[in-house]
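Bench notes, afternoon.
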Amino acid sequence: MNMKLEELQTRIGAEHQDLLKFVQHTFDELDRRSEEHRKLTSVNALAGIKPEGTAEADFYRHVNEMKNLLIEMLEKTTQDIEHLGDKNWDKNFVDGVED
């Protein structure tokens, strides 16, 4: 994921770095909450509360899906930014990427 963010950072212009910063902050928060969840699950396991395997798998699957969705949306936004002014480009977002 971080490699993809680094690639997009080189492709996106300096005036749009705030988009990249937002996604990076969101990734950091998802990682922080995943770590908190892991610690809570560990403490519960030590207390004799068995974690439900499918729920744990679903939790981490959803976190990864969220990260993939954010990367996909940033990729589409970057493509639209790169093709600003290109009348032959079919926009990913109908409302555009500029105010």
